[in-house]
Amino acid sequence: MHVISSISDMIETRNALKGSVGFVPTMGYLHRGHLSLVEAARKQTDNVVASIFVNPTQFGPNEDLDSYPRNFERDEKMAEEAGVDFIFYPDKQDMYPEGYASYVVPEGLDNHLCGAKRPGHFRGVMTIVLKLFNIIRPTDGYFGQKDIQQARILEQMVTDFHLPVRMHIEPIVRERDGLAMSSRNVYLNPDERKQSVCLSRAIRLVETRFRAGQRDTAVLLSEAEKEIQRQASSKIDYIELVDYHTLEPIHRITDRAVLACAVYFGHTRLIDNTILE
Ligand code: PAF
Fold it and tell me: Which of 27, 42, 68, 135 is 20 to 30 Å apart from 142, CA to CA?
């Protein structure tokens, strides 16, 4: 495995690659969720590139940019073991040099869910992913369903800008007790960690009710809310049922839909979701 830290070296390396290129963008502090993306890329493409870059433009002023967990040596080892061929590890100065002034913005798909709660977040995500796509020119991009709004917005960006990238959205990877894997899980203290399982429990509950025929959004949301609120340290940021394509709230499920939630446990904000179809 090679670590490449300059944009020009990455472009040169990419130009020499033969066959398909699977790309797994990350902000590091890898976990089994990221590794499942690498695994899918490994199976489906000839070369696997992962990027590690904590992208400052997708963090709000009061968010956790400075404290975001980082451990490059650990990531390097995990990526190598998982079969990554190249890690692209640029620095901030390279990606956003003095005078940087261009951004990509979503139109509408960020009206709800995290987009409504984290203004500017998806502008930062779209911008960095487009930049990384331009540098790495992958044939295939791998994203986790855990960040479902991000995945949908990026899928739409690829369509709207005619980018020659096949997008893959891989299933959520969970801890044994159901908690969705996230780099931010390390922020949880033992008590919050225990309580955080209510998120996946609420999701399973909604899935069960949906399978039994319940299609009324208000009923499903109220059950999920009750399940989460049973935990004293939980504070719901949002819980919504939206159409999969438009990400607009719906009253009844008649087509592919997403139940998505963000919940604080202490200072830690966790997200989770399920696709209902
Ligand atoms: O999902 C993430 O880790 C980030 O949002 C991404 C896609 C790497 C862009 O910084």
Answer: 68
The predicted model scores a pTM of 0.97
> Among 136, 170, 204, where does a domain finish?
170
Cα 187 to middle of ligand 1, angstroms: 18
Query: Of the residues 145, 170, 195, which one is the last residue of a structural domain?
Result: 170
Per residue in 74-83, pLDDT tens?
999 999 999 9
> Element (H or E) spanning 35, and its range?
helix 32-44
Reply yes or no on whether 34 is catalytic.
yes
The burial of 87, by beta-carbon neighbours within 10 Å (0-12 exposed, 13-18 middle, 19 or more buried), is given as buried
Domain of 75, CATH number, reads 3.40.50.620
Residues 19 and 153 in one domain: yes
pLDDT tens per residue across span 220-229: 999 999 999 9
What does the pLDDT read at residue 48?
Answer: 98
